[in-house]
Amino acid sequence: MNEELQFEEEILSKAKGLYIEVRRITGGLFTGHHKSRIRGRGTDFIELREYTNGDDIRDIDWKFYGRREKLMVKVKEDKGRIDLLLCVDDSYSMDFGKNNKLDYAVRLAGIIGYLGISQGDRILLKTFSGFPEVPPSPSKDAFFNFFIALSMIKPNCSIKPVRFLEEMNINSKGVKVIVLSDMLYEENMALEFLSSFEGIEYDIIHIIAEEEKEVIGFEQAFFKNPEGDEKILVDPNLLNRYYRKAFTEWEKNLEKTITERGGIYINALTSMPLQETIINYLTKLGKR
Amino acid sequence: MNHYAFYFLPFVLLPIIIHLIGKKPEKETKFPPFEILQKIYREYKWYLRVRNLLLLFLRMSIIFLFIISVSKISCGLLPEKNEGLGIVIDSSYSTMTFDGNKRIFKKEIEIAKEILMKAKDARVFKCSDTLTGVYIDEILNEKLEPDFKNGNAKRCYEELSRMGFSEILWITDGRKEGYEELKGGKIKMIDVSQGKKFPNAWIDRVEIKGGTLEFHLKSNGKVDVTWGVKSGISSSSGKIELNEEEIVRTTFNENSEWTMIKITGDALDADNYYFVAKKGGEKKLVGIFNFSPSEVPYLDESFYIKKTLSTEENIRIKEKVPFTMKGLELEKERYSFLFLLNPAWNQYVKDLINSAFNQKIPIFVSAGEGDGFKKVCEFMGIKVRGIKEIEARRKLRPASEPLWFSEHYGEDIFDEIFVKKIYLTESSREIEPIIILSSGEPLLLKIPDKNFYILTTTADPDWSQFPIARIFVPLMLEIVLRSSKNEEVIEIRGGFDIRKGEKTVVKPHIEASEVPGIYQKGGKTIVANLYPTEESLLTPLSFVESETESPKNYSGIHLWKYALFFTGILLVLESILLR
């Protein structure tokens, strides 16, 4: 994996006009690109509406009352800020492929992080192994900390954590989780992993190496689980047809499950240029 | 049918052998979607096993069917419906008889060639005493010689019938013995001698009574015979008008180690000699150490040597093949002569040669494909320059000192021999060439002081036809009988048995006979036939007509064609399974 991260200017310039959109309105105190969920507190006027019990009397348009003797409340909007939790899968299974999956995920995370910081969001970085960890920090150093932490990510663990959000004690409000993983869980664990995002906005960027889609390029050998001790003797020529079908089905099912549960699914093949993947992702976010 | 193809039948087991000894991969590949792969593997495990077994079976079947295809085997389930033509050339020794200036055998070959040119689906066989007819289509243009034993007509006929020939054309020298049971049916005879009678004379029996040598001459007709008796000390000769049986008496010099009797005057002059020496005790034991035995008799030098030596009553032959070569043989048996055929080069051979020298046992070494021959020669101090390929047919010429039998046979015993490959040896003072090819390459050498003979070629048709040359039998007898280690002189008998007993010549129907060839009868193309007479209304076909007419509607089951077809089908099946 590349120790030094280099993000092509071209990618960043292409992504300049795009933003990491959130589907829920933020309620943050800091300024950012996203619309705040609390109307009335901001600076941009939107409309007048009738006063109802519970409205803050500071929002009453007294000039209007003076002219029409009717209590109306000014509705305003504020630019909000969110916490982007970038969750990078650094399990051993990610260390695979001619275009290494983990390398690809880290680069992708770097670009997303850069975009997030550019639009004033707070960036949190979390790996499955838990190392390195970048604590949320509004300071200018956050930007550098983030990239240094990214460069330190290595294949590190055999277990994919299922309910890491609970451990992190993440407040669902104002947080968007972006998972960059190959999602190679056992079937039940994958469901549990997805259900752990309930109430949180999340996107899954599914990192797949070209070599995983078919086994035809391999010689007859003992195929080994990189995260376990199991192995089986496989003649790729014999098994490829069935494997290819099963892999495609698995991908489709995963996308369906994620979409049904309100997440966004992005298929990121490591053979695709990074810029294409990032633009696909941002475009998909914009359409929602 | 190409029966050599069946030697490749063990190759059917090749897929199993490859499967069994095929290396299991030791390589490990880390593969992240292992769970998916494992699930598929479990799901299709049995299917894949069945598929693999099917592939194994398919591949074995493909090899088997391919061998069948190449063999061109046909199943003669309905041989009576087949219409192939089998031509058999009588190759018994009596065909050595001269008819005018030409031997009967040569005439037989010419007729066979003529028929072979006209009949598109004919096969030519030589009837010898081998189990099966020898397929000789391809070597008709080579120098062919008759065998020196009786042909086994019945066995040859049975074999050809099994092969499904509807018509069998037997080209013979007119002698009916051996053919009586075969007449009629689908066999037709061509009498090459066309009824001419060639009365033969032969030495039937020899007795030594005191100082008298008494030999009984027999004939199957009236023939003027010249006889000669020669020994190392004296010689005598005479003429006799032989009619059925006569006895000739002459003096026998007991001081002579050997005496040779020969008669001349009949048309077949090849086997009319008898060799007598002082009678000794036990039989000579000749060891044939055959280092590369062949299952095909006529490719094996040992086959010819055994045949030759078996004509001698006082010789016992013991053949050893690599499987039976154990321990030092010369310690156990009292060998008088050793043949080392296509020898290997190892300690066993070294010990064998050294032991033979110690016991003064003569050795005869012949060449072969392996490099053992070269090593043996070098061990004997003879430099071998390599193998020379000779394209042309060469005449033999004797070395400076003529062999004793050349005196008897005349120079024509050194007639043409076809030698394709020989080892070239460097000449030296210690080596005495016995026979040299006309182009100068030595064919047979001897190291006199060690009684060591070297034949620079072998029986394989790729090398030479030496073992079926006329010179072979008398030469081998000469070498073995005169060189073999034995202090006592024993009686040695030469010559052949072929004309013992009643001999008759077929009475031909000259008035009905035509020139042998292909004829038309009743709108059907049939082969020539001079016997019996009912074929006398045959009309000769013109050459062009016989060329254009399909001579063959072979209706037997061509198994090989079906095998070829199914090989193709199975190959397609295999490629589908592999997809």
Question: What's the layout of helices and strands?
Answer:
The complex is a heterodimer of chains A (288) and B (579).
Chain A (H helix, E strand, L loop, with lengths): L8 H6 L19 E2 L8 E7 L11 H7 L3 E6 L1 E2 L2 E6 L12 H18 L3 E6 L13 H11 L12 H5 L6 E7 L5 H9 L5 E8 L1 H4 L7 E4 L6 E4 L1 H25 L3 E6 L4 H14 L1
Parallel strand pairs in A: 5-6, 5-7, 7-8, 8-11
Antiparallel strand pairs in A: 1-4, 2-3, 9-10
Chain B lengths: L13 H8 L6 E3 L3 H38 L12 E7 L7 E2 L2 E2 H15 L3 E6 L6 E2 L17 H10 L2 E8 L14 E5 L9 E9 L2 E20 L3 E17 L6 E7 L8 E5 L6 E7 L10 H9 L5 E6 L8 H4 L4 E5 L5 H12 L4 E4 L5 H8 L4 E6 L4 E5 L5 H6 L6 E2 L3 E5 L6 E6 L4 E6 L4 E4 L16 H12 L34 E4 L2 E4 L11 E2 L2 H6 L10 H20 L1
Helix pairs in contact in B: 2-12, 5-10
Instruction: Please tell me the overall pLDDT of chain A.
Output: 78
Q: How would the global form of chain A be characterised?
A: elongated
Give the termini distance of chain A in whole angstroms. Answer: 34 Å
Quaternary structure type: heterodimer
Label the structural class of chain B. Answer: alpha/beta
**Tally of helical segments of chain A:** 9
Mean pLDDT of chain B: 72
Compute the separation of the termini of chain B in Å: 36 Å
Overview of this protein structure:
The complex is a heterodimer of chains A (288) and B (579). Chain A contains 9 helices and 11 strands. With 288 residues, chain A is α/β, with parallel strands linked by helices. The radius of gyration of chain A is 23 Å and the shape is elongated. In chain A, 33% of the residues are buried. Chain B is built from 12 helices and 27 strands. Chain B has a 9-stranded mixed beta sheet, sandwiched between helices. A 5-stranded mixed beta sheet of chain B has the order 6-5-2-7-8, sandwiched between helices. The longest helix of chain B is centred in the N-terminal third of the chain and has 38 residues, at 34-71. Chain B starts with 13 loop residues before the first helix and ends with a helix. Mean pLDDT of chain B is 72; it is low at 77-82, 129-133 and 487-555. At the A-B interface, β9, β10 and α8 of A face β1 and α2 of B. β9 (221-224) of chain A pairs parallel with β1 of chain B, so a sheet runs across the interface.
